[in-house]
């Protein structure tokens, strides 16, 4: 530090005590010192000290801590540390209360879409991007908060903070935590756009706000900007034509998942082994319906449809869902499991945004079981929420709701027996003799069945599901490998592996009933604390 600055600091510290709010809380931008109860700006104290005091007789080198404090505060006077400083300079006024602003709130799951359209709109407007410090995550930041220059709530400038979001592409999307764009509309009309995140009881939200001076050109740009933001929020380019859910994968890649993008298998028609009658029903009620949807709507009919797939465990209901999704590539798929039923309202909002959409609700009996079997308030609330959301879909909605269940008889009648909620009930039956033979050949395509081994396997697997057959064929392959005769499969191998299928099936059914009973009991325990 130069002798001149040291000389002034020596005079100051001999007469004044340091204002703690300046050095430690860092609330006041222009540092002040205190003499008694009066407050002085640092530069004013320098001027008075130099004008009225003589140099001290004995010069001593100041302590390092004192030198550091003075040097830091001199830098603070010269550099912008708070947002209001940037705003005053950008709008060229000390009266920031003259600004006008408009804002919109969206679900944070659309953050990549919102940020991308903002960046596209400001690209040609000489943007300057600033990072913002958010003190409370549960309180949305507003432009009016950024204009304050006094008190504990003054917003500080920070480095721009980003977080990678998995959007199902090769590269994640780099999203902002909080950001402020300073732009120029036309040649000399300043404006500011803020994007911020905050937490609510219903989940995280994103707020977009634009501030500008009260002139005609700025008003017109603000209206155009808000229309573009709302249109992007209703379309979502990043998640369209993908399979998404709200669950987090819990991976270790370090990316944030506002929504999880699922990579579902590509299932062709040849990969689906069902009876001819069942395939005909799928074609009629799903694929033919989608093909005729626009014409049906023109004739005054509904474009939405509810489909219930039911059958024994392991018959391939999920496989059929994958087949439907894979062969309707222009649709976005929203996957809902029983654990996420509390987010049902958000799921239906997302389905409306991503139309045409397929909403898949697996194990719907866990939330849609008969009211006679419901003993808790929470379970009934979830059921009513599901029914209300299904009723809330408009007639012109391009949404297919596909529900699956293993226990169709336990469903609430108001759900399963009412057209408009469930329009079609399709059974995915246990495979017949022809289907079992095709399944065994498909799963055992690398095996060589000798003599009557294949026919024996078909006969012994009667009543078995597709999942049961897949496991038995794997055991046949393992037995042939261990016997050193791979890939040969004899009739004796089939007799050993397929012995007693009914025992295994009954065991699986008992396991399923145990799991469902546990889930229902857990719901009842949760409801015990309800008012």
Automatic annotation (TrEMBL):
InterPro entries to which the protein is assigned, alphabetical: 26S_Proteasome_ATPase, AAA+_ATPase, ATPase_AAA_core, P-loop_NTPase
Origin: domain of life: Bacteria
Keyword set includes Oxidoreductase: no
Gene3D superfamilies: P-loop containing nucleotide triphosphate hydrolases
Pfam families documented for this protein: AAA
GO molecular function, one term: ATP binding
Sorted UniProt keywords: ATP-binding, Nucleotide-binding, Plasmid
PANTHER family tied to this protein: 26S PROTEASOME REGULATORY SUBUNIT
Family, as annotated: Belongs to the AAA ATPase family.
Name recorded for this polypeptide: AAA ATPase central domain protein
Organism this protein belongs to: Rhizobium meliloti
């Amino acid at each position: 530090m130069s002798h001149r600055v040291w000389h002034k600091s020596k005079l100051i510290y001999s007469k004044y005590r340091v204002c703690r709010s300046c050095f430690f809380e860092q609330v006041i931008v222009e540092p002040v010192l205190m003499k008694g109860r009066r407050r002085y700006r640092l530069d004013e104290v320098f001027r008075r000290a130099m004008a009225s005091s003589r140099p001290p007789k004995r010069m001593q080198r100041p302590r390092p801590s004192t030198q550091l404090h003075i040097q830091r505060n001199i830098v603070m006077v010269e550099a912008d540390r708070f947002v209001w400083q940037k705003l005053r300079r950008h709008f060229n006024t000390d009266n920031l209360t003259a600004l006008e602003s408009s804002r919109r709130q969206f679900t944070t799951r659309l953050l990549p879409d919102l940020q991308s359209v903002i960046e596209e709109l400001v690209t040609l407007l000489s943007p300057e991007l600033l990072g913002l410090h958010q003190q409370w995550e549960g309180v949305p930041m507003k432009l009016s908060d950024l204009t304050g220059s006094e008190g504990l709530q003054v917003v500080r400038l920070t480095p721009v903070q980003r977080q990678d979001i998995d959007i199902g592409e090769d590269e994640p999307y780099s999203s902002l935590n909080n950001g402020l764009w300073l732009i120029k509309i036309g040649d000399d009309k300043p404006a500011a756009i803020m994007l911020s995140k905050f937490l609510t009881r219903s989940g995280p939200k994103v707020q977009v706000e634009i501030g500008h001076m009260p002139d005609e050109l700025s008003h017109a740009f603000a209206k155009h900007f808000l229309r573009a933001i709302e249109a992007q929020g209703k379309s979502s380019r990043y998640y369209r034509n993908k399979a998404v859910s709200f669950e987090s994968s819990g991976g270790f890649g370090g990316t944030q998942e506002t929504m999880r993008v699922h990579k579902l298998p590509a299932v062709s028609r040849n990969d689906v082994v069902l009876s001819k009658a069942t395939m005909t029903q799928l074609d009629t009620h799903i694929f033919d319906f989608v093909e005729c949807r626009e014409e049906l709507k023109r004739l005054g009919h509904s474009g939405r449809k509810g489909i219930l797939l039911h059958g024994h465990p392991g018959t391939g209901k999920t496989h059929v869902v994958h087949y439907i999704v894979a062969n309707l590539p222009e649709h976005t798929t929203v996957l809902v499991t029983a654990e996420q039923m509390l987010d049902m309202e958000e799921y239906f909002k997302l389905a409306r945004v991503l139309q045409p959409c397929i909403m898949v609700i697996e194990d719907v009996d866990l939330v849609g079981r008969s009211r006679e079997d419901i003993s808790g308030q929470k379970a009934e609330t979830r059921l009513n929420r599901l029914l209300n959301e299904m009723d809330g879909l408009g007639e012109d909605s391009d949404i297919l709701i596909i529900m699956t269940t293993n226990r169709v008889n336990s469903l609430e009648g108001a759900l399963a027996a009412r057209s408009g909620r469930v329009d079609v009930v399709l059974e995915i039956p246990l495979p017949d003799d022809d289907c079992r033979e095709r399944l065994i050949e498909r799963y055992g395509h690398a095996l060589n069945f000798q003599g009557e081994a294949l026919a024996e396997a078909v006969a012994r697997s009667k009543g078995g599901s597709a999942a049961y057959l897949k496991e038995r064929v794997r055991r046949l392959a393992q037995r042939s490998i261990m016997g050193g005769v791979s890939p040969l499969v004899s009739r004796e191998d089939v007799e050993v592996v397929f012995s007693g299928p009914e025992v295994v099936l009954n065991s699986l059914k008992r396991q399923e009933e145990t799991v469902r009973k546990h889930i229902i009991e857990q719901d009842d325990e949760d409801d015990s604390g309800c008012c």
